[in-house]
Amino acid sequence: MADPKGFMTTPRQDWPRRPVGERVRDWDEVYVPGALLPIISKQADRCMDCGIPFCHEACPLGNLIPEWNDLVSRDDWRAAADRLHATNNFPEFTGRLCPAPCEAGCVLAINQPAVTIKNVEVAIADRAWELGFAPPQAPDRLSGRTVAVVGSGPTGLAAAQQLTRAGHTVAVYEKDDRLGGLMRYGIPEFKMEKRHLERRIEQMRAEGTKFRTSTAVGRDVGAAELRARYDAVVIATGATAWRELPVPGRELAGVQQAMEYLPLANRVCEGDLESSPMSAAGKHVVIVGGGDTGADCLGTAVREGAASVTQLDIYAQPGAERDEDAEPWPTYPKIYRLSAAHEEAGELGTAPTADADARLFAASTLRFVGDADGHVRSLHLVEVDAGRRPVAGTGRSLPADLVLLALGFSGPDREDGLIGQLGLAMEARGTITRDAGFATSVPGVFAAGDAARGQSLIVWAIAEGRAVAAAVDRYLTGSTRLPAPIGPYDRPMTV
């Protein structure tokens, strides 16, 4: 480490966000441009270069965190970029979108604020692009083998890039008109501007990866035909089958899924629409679901000019500190976190019915009530105890012109015909069955990412993409030199 006392002398300092009143008037990323670089070397100095770096274990990619922290503290950006890209194809994505389980596993976090690993990561990634340290890596020779990757989310893109660099001819099939999966149409612009995505896609094109947009495998192209055309197929369609809320009034107009709402706002940012047909402007909005997708809806509704926004979380409000008995270090704890969207809602007072930051905790939706035209006008809820049982006398009603269901996803969508046409075996929970080598029940067909693992984090998605690429390479050639950071049955650290 450059400064052996850095963790004792330097306090944690995060990338500052722009003032709330400024950032809610646009769709740019929430952070102050250029404010990270002046502080990041000293923040990297806080890394203790632990003998056993638990941040490695907490990150499924196996990122070499102490190594690139040390290099950043010495301003060696080229070497830092090399070490970062050795384990992560898209660090500018994870540095912006990952909730950073590596920081929860930081040894310093036992009794102090963790190293700002996520900020260091994104600083290296952005600096690498600025200084030309992320050139295309086209293969020296081609293998003569072909691979189709179905889905262009982080898993599909990571698998495609690894296999292309290994010399295989790879084509990525994407059902939407643009590449990126949920990173394109599910993640709001204020969390990650799509220029970062476009830059990586252009790098992949230069390396030789082919892309087929507006092509749904199973509908526009037969799944069996695709399998016959390629030597191997990787299914990386993600978990897009959203969970429902079967309560009275669900059929009312204005009760929408989050992933019906968010893509429209992203299309406005892409220039496809002048305004969203589902805009929250002037409406009382209630978001059902306390996770990241719900927070994305919250930040979007605030920017669209909602009259009020409230987010319901069925869980009790977590504490500010880790519960050492239930979630001991280095596991990822459920603690009270204030996202940029919650900070905005709290400062602007978007939810007068909530105590703070627009969230109502321990709240369960009972029913929706509509007007004579069949449009939702209110949501009735009740407080629940730790066992999710209703607490007597706590029922209440919230005005609601737009209700957004952000309840997560159960597995891949079966309506496009891909799964049925291939005859893939499925797990009871709705995900694709695969063996220890990522292979499905159909020879030559592999499954990775949320479609097989279930809904997870972006770091797990990229790790799955890298691992399935190694499995496919071995299947095609008999051996592989590609890294496989995880196995299909690996899971995050828990008690």
Give structural notes.
The protein has a five-stranded parallel beta sheet with strand order 3-2-1-4-13, with helices on both faces. It has a five-stranded parallel beta sheet with strand order 5-12-6-7-8. The longest helix has 20 residues. It starts with 5 loop residues before the first helix and ends in an 18-residue tail after the last helix. Helix 6 crosses helix 9 and helix 14 packs across helix 15. About 35% of the residues lie in helices and about 10% in strands. It is globular and about 65 Å long. It has 19 helices and 13 strands. With about 500 residues, it is an alpha/beta fold.
Give the strand order of the largest sheet, numbering strands 1, 2, ... along the chain.
3-2-1-4-13
Helix % is: 25-40%
Percent of residues in β-strands:
5-15%
Report on the biggest sheet: 5 strands, parallel
- Note poorly predicted spans: none
Keywords: Amino-acid biosynthesis, Glutamate biosynthesis, Oxidoreductase
Pathway: Amino-acid biosynthesis
Pfam family, one: Pyr_redox_2
InterPro entries: 4Fe4S_Fe-S-bd, DPD_II, FAD/NAD-bd_sf, FAD/NAD-binding_dom, Glut_synth_ssu1, Glutamate_Synthase, Helical_ferredxn
Keywords, separated by commas or semicolons:
globular; oxidoreductase; five-stranded parallel β-sheet; 495 residues
Topology overview:
Blueprint: H1 6-9, H2 20-23, H3 37-44, H4 54-58, H5 65-73, H6 77-85, H7 91-97, H8 101-104, H9 117-131, E1 146-150, H10 154-165, E2 169-173, H11 182-185, H12 195-207, E3 210-212, H13 223-229, E4 232-235, E5 255-257, H14 258-270, E6 284-288, H15 292-304, E7 308-313, H16 340-348, E8 359-361, E9 363-370, E10 376-383, E11 396-399, E12 402-405, H17 418-422, E13 445-447, H18 450-453, H19 458-477
Helix pairs in contact: 3-5, 3-9, 5-6, 5-9, 6-9, 7-9, 10-19, 14-15, 15-16
